[in-house]
Amino acid sequence: MPADRILDDLRALRAGDLPTHGGRTLAYVYDSGLSGLDELAAGAHALASSTNGLDPTAFPSLLRMENDIVAAASALLGGGPATVGTVTSGGTESCMLAVHAARASRGDVTRPRIVVPSTAHAAFHKAAHYFHVEVATVPVSPDTFTADPEAMAAAIDDRTVLVVVSAPSYAHGVVDPVVPVAAAARERGVRCHVDACIGGWVLPYFRALGEDVPDFDLSVPGVTSLSVDLHKYAYCPKGTSVLLHADADLRRPQFFASASWPGYTMLNSTLQSTRSGGPLAAAWAVLNHLGDDGYRSLASTVLSATRTLRAGIATMDGLRLQGDPRSTLLSVAADADDFDVFTVADEMTERGWYLQPQFGFESSAPNLHLTVTAANHGTEELLLADLAAAVASARRSGPVTMGPEVTSTIAGLDPAELTPEAFGALLAMAGMTKVAAPKRMAEVNAMLAVAPPPLRERLLVEFLSVLYTPGS
Ligand SMILES: Cc1ncc(COP(=O)(O)O)c(C=O)c1O
Questions:
Q1: Is the pLDDT of residue 283 over 90?
Q2: Is the Cβ atom of 176 under 6 angstroms away from ligand 1?
Q3: Residue 134 has what pLDDT?
Q4: pLDDT of residue 317
Q5: Closest by Cα among 215, 51, 135, 133 to 453
Q6: Cβ neighbours of residue 88 under 8 Å, at least 6 residues apart?
Q7: Strand-by-strand arrangement of the 329-334 sheet
Q8: Are β-strands 84-88 and 241-245 bridged in parallel, bridged antiparallel, or unpaired?
Q9: Of the residues 129, 168, 182, 421, which has the fewest C-beta atoms closer than 10 A?
Q10: Does 220 sit in the ligand 1 pocket, CB within 6 Å?
């Protein structure tokens, strides 16, 4: 096929995606709203995409750029002269490597465990699953959704290899009390990781702008590692995060070397081995172009947008904010029972916005997540007006109701024994003739909401398995 036709086809396919620019998609994407930034990143990506980070001595440009990026992250996030780091492919990889390094550093512990607040990102559960680590999940405070430092300290035992806190948590945008948790970990000689994947490149600038941001970075005694994603609030293209360690000894167990085969000695700093230099170069270009002043200005823009949205939602009839968000993330729950918040999500989709449904969990009610970015500035009132209209519309439809046969079918499902037939029957009950996301998700979300998490996980794995079957 000729190149231009292929690109036309790709453009046509992309037209079916959620918009990645313009502030209409309030999850998954981070838009600076600055013209020219995408072109710079794409140009830098193209210059380096054929290089291979597998061997940094063969591609010293990658080594230089990675060291530059780590130094910038360390300077921003309280690192000291001993701080070292690694650029990874994203937040999940950074969190997984923090768990792996902690586990590998404690060969003396036969059944290692990590202590996490219940709001910690699912990446830690993924790490535990992959690396056979037990997770001790500590409930957060039911009103503030922040980690409970006493309960976290009490959960640390002789098998604990890592304690985790978030700055902020994804679901509620609140910053955990890093100081007392890190102190408790230090007292027990246990590593403490701060997951600042989403907040790390914006909270320091919020503080510089005068916001009250609790201490959370590597300068806090006891914090041994910190993750910060460049593909979030550093507004870099997808594929870069930084994992910082307080010193090289803490980082060493993260690395992997194998000389046990006849080929090149495999020597890796991350989970990947062959690693494109593209995302790294793109991030390096964006960081250098924006610089401290650029990020400060973007932080001021997103702060203003978040404040306006927060104030508008807090006073909107029928909605309430959960927790006291300190960053750029909002969790919006229904404040009345005559409508369903997931219907509001559908109504917003019809109005051209994507808000992300989050299921109820412990004291957290079913809610909609908003990741606010700089691109949301200027259209706050439009979003608020559409949100008010979406709530009114959801009220007219009333809450989603499920027949007793649906509830009892879900109650009777055993995640360990879910058959393709039972899954098919459930899809039919949800009104889905084939596996594809329907236009309106409220009914599907209502069904998923009554499924306990292990069943929900199993159902969604089945869903993914069918989705990723060619021709399905
Ligand atoms: C706090 C936090 N940690 C980890 C992650 C995982 O990052 P990624 O999706 O880049 O793997 C996220 C993603 O939103 C996050 O918000």
A1: yes
A2: no
A3: 98
A4: 96
A5: 135
A6: 94, 97, 240, 241, 242, 243, 270, 271
A7: 319-321, 329-334, 367-371, 356-358
A8: antiparallel
A9: 421
A10: no
CB 342 within 8 A of CB 358: no
Nearest-angstrom CA–CA distance, 195 and 57:
30
Q: How many residues are recorded in the chain? A: 472
Ligand 1 atom having least distance to the Cα of 170: 16
Atom 5 of ligand 1, nearest CA residue: 91
Distance 121 CA to ligand 1 centre (A): 7
**Residue in the block written with tokens 């994203």:** 90
Which of 164-168, 297-301, 400-404 is predicted least confidently?
Answer: 400-404
Contacts of 421 (CB under 8 A, 6+ apart): none
Residue of 301, 332, 310 lying closest to 233 (CA atoms): 301
370 beta partners: 330
Which tokens belong to 44?
A: 């830098």
* Closest CA to ligand 1's atom 6: 91
- The identity of residue 295, as a single letter, is Y
- 267 in helix, strand or coil? strand
List CB contacts of 14: < 8 A, sequence separation 6 or more: none
Return the structure tokens found at 363.
């004291």
442 vs 449: CA distance, rounded Å: 10
Angle 292-293-298 (CA atoms, 0-180°, nearest 5)?
100
Q: Which residues of 40-58 are buried (b: 16+ CB within 10 A; e: fewer)?
A: bbeebbeebeebebbebee
pTM score > 0.90 for this model? Answer: yes
Average pLDDT over residues 110-135: 98
